[in-house]
Amino acid sequence: MIELGANRYGKAAIHLVRVHRDRAGHRISDVTVAIALEGDFERSYTDGDNSLVIATDTMKNTAYAFAKDRLAGALEDYGRALAEHFVAFRQVDRATVSIRGHDWAAIDVAGAPARDAFVRGGEGTRVATVSATPGGTTVQAGVDDLVLLKTARSGFSGFPRDRYTTLPETDDRLMATRLSAIWRYGSPDLDADLTFAAIRATLLEVFADHDSPSVQASIWIIGREILRRHEEVDEVRMVLPNLHHWLADLTPFGLANDGEVYVSTTEPHGLIEATVRRGEDT
Amino acid sequence: MIELGANRYGKAAIHLVRVHRDRAGHRISDVTVAIALEGDFERSYTDGDNSLVIATDTMKNTAYAFAKDRLAGALEDYGRALAEHFVAFRQVDRATVSIRGHDWAAIDVAGAPARDAFVRGGEGTRVATVSATPGGTTVQAGVDDLVLLKTARSGFSGFPRDRYTTLPETDDRLMATRLSAIWRYGSPDLDADLTFAAIRATLLEVFADHDSPSVQASIWIIGREILRRHEEVDEVRMVLPNLHHWLADLTPFGLANDGEVYVSTTEPHGLIEATVRRGEDT
Amino acid sequence: MIELGANRYGKAAIHLVRVHRDRAGHRISDVTVAIALEGDFERSYTDGDNSLVIATDTMKNTAYAFAKDRLAGALEDYGRALAEHFVAFRQVDRATVSIRGHDWAAIDVAGAPARDAFVRGGEGTRVATVSATPGGTTVQAGVDDLVLLKTARSGFSGFPRDRYTTLPETDDRLMATRLSAIWRYGSPDLDADLTFAAIRATLLEVFADHDSPSVQASIWIIGREILRRHEEVDEVRMVLPNLHHWLADLTPFGLANDGEVYVSTTEPHGLIEATVRRGEDT
Amino acid sequence: MIELGANRYGKAAIHLVRVHRDRAGHRISDVTVAIALEGDFERSYTDGDNSLVIATDTMKNTAYAFAKDRLAGALEDYGRALAEHFVAFRQVDRATVSIRGHDWAAIDVAGAPARDAFVRGGEGTRVATVSATPGGTTVQAGVDDLVLLKTARSGFSGFPRDRYTTLPETDDRLMATRLSAIWRYGSPDLDADLTFAAIRATLLEVFADHDSPSVQASIWIIGREILRRHEEVDEVRMVLPNLHHWLADLTPFGLANDGEVYVSTTEPHGLIEATVRRGEDT
Question: In the annotation, is C11 catalytic?
């Protein structure tokens, strides 16, 4: 017997811009949206029966239509409107809406922000994922591609050595990463913009301010502090590549290199991923 | 109480080439390897205690060293050697080795293959993932970025319509995708090269030869046939973007377009993912 | 005084597929087209006067429309039809049409090619550039992203050494590149498909068959042979990154490495570019 | 007769980080460098004679070594040191050093900048190109990948219409671009950081503040103003894709779309490139 296992379908890479033409100045929401549905779709696979299949083109249209009236504030609110719209179809058990928000700042003109001209920024990409089921809605938020560097207070030592180990121990290395973090809120009802900004600030501040004996420990220290300071958060998952910066060997040229010149590499890289969460007793 | 949840760490993007200098002609294995470990690593996060942390640099070195003697045949055999090496450490509960194999063909010189010169091909990338635990080893194989197109025998109709539905029904569309498929073998002991080639041929042949009422149904038809023809396979997971090709509207120019000219798009795209597996009764 | 210097404008990344539904089986032309115009457009810059500006949207429409009737054979013929269409506008001094052709092969079903299903290949991308002026039309053709590797008959020695030189001389290294070559035909009137295939075969064959004392010399040897064998070609320009493959140091692990295991890198890379052409006396 | 035409060679993608460990706080220079040489290298092509070929590996080493002492301030000064080093070799007629500078900001910790932790920004990439010949040195500077958007004061009308024209005229569209600009200084002796910042501010301000009848006119208006305000600049070259944002058609859903919801696209795109320079009479 052959059967269908886990499955989902949807529309990805729906890229749209919502312009709010306020009198005081324009505001823009620039988002890339992905929508995925799970539910009673087995017969579309096994029998070619599309009678319950909401077309992915319809999902795209819905994203455009909802952008008109429901994309004014936080990404999470727009995502929730979409997810709850789709989960209202009886054949849908779970609707997941993932949004990447592209950051724009008003251009500075002689010390004041332009009212209708923008430059795209790039300190990471804000992400939001809303998952709606008939039983309720879960909101996750986070940041992707946040590139960070510590030039001090990072080391790696005390690890076991075997035949294949050549890495020297160090108590002073560069630590560079392209951080991805996504955290889950205990309730979908919150001021998502304010909360996001506060958690992002915590993340950056703790990254800057801690001593790192390993990338693993950094994840723990940052994640724990996010949970301590932000009671809205139930769990945070982080993925950190370790983008190695090797001290350039300048001795052939008769030069010392006292933590001055580093070869920047992206491959190969370490890759550390972990979840930090509230335990049972919370 | 705050605690550590799921976690793993390792080295990614280890790119190496193994040259086999046979008398009859050179052969090359060109691979990108990722290694990830799970196990007794909690204290590296919570206490900065690296005493059980196999350095990711050591993983990289091991991949190079093993390439000398264990990367002669199938990617899966090399991956298994690495995975079983790492799971032998007492602190490791699971070692996962993922390999991407880059395809090279001997260059044709006057009708004969060159003995030491190669051109890189591109009909998808072969992938293999070997996961070793103290209880045993699981081998998965597959293909990624396999770009396929059907110019006939593909339609999409019978789907529900709501306020946001504008897509017309069609019994004749282009179906284009960048297919990813990965299948799990029931046993790790097999001729992985031969089996891979046979399954890949089935996949392509069924893609070419079936009538598609939807991408969902195509996944089912292809997956079911792989399971039917290849008893080594327990389950196959496929992810298919639907890379829409829209009929160009040539009527403003006084031209008909009878399935001749299509606008090729990548965004937005449908995205369908499903697993087809042997059921309980098998 | 401030003035306008060199300028051109056009439409890029027009991606379309032309399906030829022949009785014996379908054929497809999958192309990405860029069109650029030079001419009497100065006032569009300096005065905001668009009265001579052929809209880039019109260029796109023209590419779709011409795909119906003029994209049956060689890319070069389609490019020429477009370029000569645009240069016929009196304000246009030069129309340049650049085309990338994406390669598809009929899928093999039980030993025979499928009639309407295709798999995308990847031994480089065919490119064509047609430039039309009132005085005549020039056709260039070539190949991009052709990834090649020699496992023997490649060295690099005899170079000067200074304070900053650490590279050892070698008479046996891997030579890997992602070759780009574009050649100019003496006349636009030729069987462009046949000629392209022949030149590409020469390029590959000479790459496989020559001894390389440097990437520079390889460019010369390949380019010279293309000119010798193909009198249609007036000049060929090649750009070759030197994608270094370093012998992995296995001595810490007690292993020899006799040209067996290489670390594959993409950055930093050498980059060599040169033109080989017929001289004045030809 | 077959001969060598234009040629150059060098090393690209040399990525290094220079850390300045000042007492008040660390500063970092994160650069990707490319070096290319032209000169008396013909025999390396035609005869395989490497006796004058400065190895690209030596170029890389030199970039690392010079990073220690000459990469403290502006990219342009480091580039000039490298370019003038290489042009001092008698076989070199021109040394070109191109640098991309990656922008980092000190992380904010409780209102103050961290002394040794950084976040990578992304409002475009600063670029510098220094070209040295025995006759003198030329410095160019610029910005790449600067993504800009105007939500008002942009239109496109008055263009000619032919059989293939369907684009409506508009006096109100979104104008989005990924701008690349590079300008040439009249003299290499200048405070390159200060000058860069001032020109970049002009570019952004004029972009924000002008009325655009076309991308062509925007290039002219911005370029002219850079030349007017910054006498150090002799010429500026700009390349602007027109990243179309199409008004989403919401009428099928019974909704108006009064400049509110736009479909964001990257392909196909317009592409406009032009140079604005000081004329003969300046």
Answer: yes
Q: What is the pLDDT of residues C233-277, one digit of tens each?
A: 999 999 999 999 999 999 999 999 999 999 999 999 999 999 999
Nearest CA of chain B to the CA of D162: how many Å? 10
Q: pLDDT at position B116, please?
A: 98
Polymer length in residues for chain B: 282
Neighbours of chain B (3+ CB pairs under 8 A): A, C, D
Is B114's Cβ below 8 Å from some Cβ in C?
A: yes
Q: Identify the three-state secondary structure at position B104.
A: strand
Instruction: Return the structure tokens found at A230.
Output: 């932000």
List CB contacts (< 8 A) between A272 and chain B. 7-9
Residues A177 and A75 in one domain: no
Residue D143, domain CATH: 3.10.270.10
**D68 catalytic, yes or no?**
no
Instruction: For the beta carbon of residue A89, count every other beta carbon within 10 angstroms.
Output: 16
Residues C130 and C24 both lie in one domain = yes
Hey, how many other C-beta atoms are within 10 angstroms of the C-beta on B47?
A: 12
Cβ separation A166–C254 shorter than 8 A = no
With a pLDDT cut of 90, the percent of chain D lying above it is 97
Q: What is the pTM of this model?
A: 0.97
Name the closest residue on chain A to residue D19, using Cα atoms. Answer: A260
Co-location of A101 and A240 in the same domain: no
- Give pLDDT tens digits for D31-89: 999 999 999 999 999 999 999 999 999 999 999 999 999 999 899 999 999 999 999 99
State the residue range of the domain holding A245: 135-282
* Count of the separate structural domains present in chain D: 2
pLDDT at D282 over 50: no
Q: Are residues A121 and A140 in the same domain?
A: no
| Closest chain B CA to residue A227 | B2
D58 and A CB contact within 8 Å: no
Nearest-by-Cβ selection for B15 from C104, C147, C264: C264
> Residue D251 has what DSSP assignment?
G
C222 close to C200: Cβ distance less than 8 angstroms: no
Residues B103 and B140 in one domain: no
Q: State ipTM.
A: 0.96
Peptide bond into C268 cis (omega under 30): yes
Last residue of a domain, one of D133, D149, D172: D133
Looking at the DSSP bridge assignments, the partners of residue C240 are C272
Answer whether A55 touches B (CB < 8 Å).
yes
The closest alpha carbon to A154, from A67, A214, A108, belongs to A214
Chain C: closest CA distance from residue A64 (Å): 23
Running DSSP on this structure, what letter comes out for residue A252? G
Same domain, B17 and B123: yes
